Amino acid sequence: MTPQELKSLVRTIPDFPVKGIQFRDITTLIGNGPGFAATVDWLATRVKDSGAQAIAGMEARGFIFGAAVAAQSALPFLPVRKSGKLPCDTIGVDYALEYGSDRLEMDPTSVTAGQRVAMVDDLLATGGTACATAQLLRQAGAVVSHAFFVIDLPDLGGAVKLRECDVEVAALMEFDGD
């Protein structure tokens, strides 16, 4: 499937979660078998070309794509979780949200020093979560130089912010606006 055909599988829901937001809903994309497979193929090709030795996915929709790409690529999958979700000792990073803050955590033993880890997620908006994930992975000893997304919202500046965090960015599709 072409990127344009895949883009047509993403449903836009106006005024969600608040008025003025155009929510890009990937459930219609993952609910289409050939579309989901083509998306995972696109991501897996870029991960392979990046030389990644493991894939990190951010909770929650990054788990969908990241785990699928990791399985297809026969690479380890590293879940980056919200605070309090892991039953082991963790390391974490706090990061700013538009209205408040949040925390990401991971098992530090899931990464080996110098391991090349690519980040995979469904959507890149402001880049806050992705930059925090890169910081957390680096704190664990990973080398993080690439992030791959299904959707980029370039008007929100996430790709620029990630590049400022020394992470190269690629996205299968873009949508203008919020």
TrEMBL record:
Enzyme class: transferase
One Gene Ontology MF term: adenine phosphoribosyltransferase activity
Pfam families: Pribosyltran (PF00156)
Catalyzed reaction equations: AMP + diphosphate = 5-phospho-alpha-D-ribose 1-diphosphate + adenine
Domain Phosphoribosyltransferase: 43-144
Top-rank taxon: Bacteria
Keywords: Cytoplasm, Glycosyltransferase, Purine salvage, Transferase
NCBIfam families found in the cross-reference section: apt, PRK02304.1-3, PRK02304.1-5
Name assigned to this protein: Adenine phosphoribosyltransferase
Species this protein is from: Qipengyuania gelatinilytica
